Amino acid sequence: MTSVTRERVTFGALVAGSLAAAALLDDSALSLYVLLLLSAIVTVGVSLVMGHAGQVTLGQGAFYACGAYTAGVVATSGLPPLLGLVLAPLAAAALATLIGVPLLLLRGHHLAFATLAMHLIFLSLVGEMTITGGDVGLQGIPRLSLGAVKLDSIRSYAYLSCLALVGIVLVTKNVLASRPGRALRALSSSEVAAASSGVPVGRYKLAVFALSAGYAGLAGGIYAFHMGYLAPGSFPVLLSIEYVVMAAVGGLGTVSGALLGAALVVLLVDALSRIATMSGMPSTAPVVLSYAVYAVLLVSAVLFMPGGLVSLIASLRAKASKARALARSRQRNIAVGHDTSRPETSRHGSPS
Amino acid sequence: MSAFLSYLVHGIAVGCGFALIASGLIIIYRVTRVVNLAQGMFAVLAGLTASSMLDLGLPHGLAEIAATIASAAAGVILGLVAIGKRGTSPEASLIVTLGVGIFGYALEILIWGDQPRSFAGLSGLLKISDLELPKQYLLIIAVTLLVFGALEVFFERTYLGKTLSACASNPGAARLVGINVTRMGLVGFALGGALGGVAGVVLTPLTPVSYDSDMPLFVNGFAAAILAGLRRPILALAGGIGLGVAEAMVAGYAKPSYQSSLALLLAITILVVQSARRSSLHVAEQ
Fold first, then answer.
1. Which of the residues A104, A168, B68, B274 has an alpha carbon 20 to 30 A from that of A140?
2. Domains, chain B
């Protein structure tokens, strides 16, 4: 099997598996599943920006909130909800383009601070405006309907999130395999070298920033219809940081890393909060545990596995296949009968 | 007393707190090239520790000093995690400080719960002709001036201070003359922790702190540090006071909820203007 077909088979299996999960899980597991899928959508974008455009972004939650509020405001003002879902990613991408022009002049810790600041400013604006319901929040967002089909069960939102995730994974894979994708890889290692080879660095960085914001906006739009209620408190700064944790744990710059990271973090935090809400635990236990998990995962991922889970798995697999190849060659040597130069083979494998 | 003067004094006092946080950020940044996203945690930690110490019956003064020492110790621990591992890039360290800051949330909730805590500072007003100044504000200003004076003496007159300056201006050359740059980085983190701690103990009587108060404190401190160009701690005093006064005026005459957005916008604008002047080649050289 060539690597392209193998990748296609894996992708197909993943799509089938995630749709099957949406069909088979019960309602309580489904709401966690929707959360997982939405986080994965945002994390793919974060991973793209951080891994390929080489930028630290701590404000992705603001684009998620922007998408959610766009969908919510459109749907509550009497327009068709589907329009809200379509506008959600567009509004988030437009916002990213607008603020990306000045912000992407910054690098490293300056950009990290600026994106964090953007998230805080966005929250304070949303809390002030009457159209978004202020600090009280936006209530009574109608359910999404596609033509005659009304999406009013959690399961339908799980299917919708699955479709959205598959869509953005396909878009990301294709973008990365294209000429601009290669240019992005070049600029993430050296902007000066990329610029001198003719890569329009500023424009590409902005495009990736906007694309990833669009992903977050789409996830936010689905979230708005899924929850039916939005408030500034639903989008704390920690949300932006969670996405960075997921991307870093999985491995920056890879789609599979983003999916793996999102799944691992969401499931781990859920499992721990189940333990923490068992009887006999103090009421603050769930919060304490989830903060501790984010912190420990983030620090250990950054310090001890810079490539994330994906590169860890790849290096383990490479080691295993090397060991297998070695074993095979030894066996062949034994079968042929001529002794090898390796001392350990001759010690316990010689046919004499 | 006119409203303007009371806003002004309030702005200066709060701005002094920002300046203390900013100076800690600047020292850590200058010595290690790491922007410490957990700088606000030091202030929160010290404020909470001081309130517990006072509850235990320690007298004022002693409790605040103990809290400052505790946050300096937290600074050393943060430094060990952030720069202790060889070959950690400043960008990676930035994310590590973020992670340690979140770990601080977990510890703080575990020890003090998630409700805001405070303690009484100096009460009463000081009357100078027809001016009435709250004594706590004056205390904050006095403590800040004292700390900045001490910092100036430390960096100009002491061997350790000069060693830190050497690491800040050229780490490579500092290493060549036999300075352990990593150890000096830890000293920088300890100093940053202590400065954040001082800010926490003087500000907590004004506004109660809870575990998540670190974000506004960090943001304002960073904005003040940016106003100072992330260079000398003493410039941060001007930056912090300027920011504090501007915010107090916005809160007084416009809307209180706009004040932190103002600080953020100001900081972002300065950053963008600065970086627009630099070419990318210039950046690549650094």
1. A168
2. 3-285 (1.10.3470)
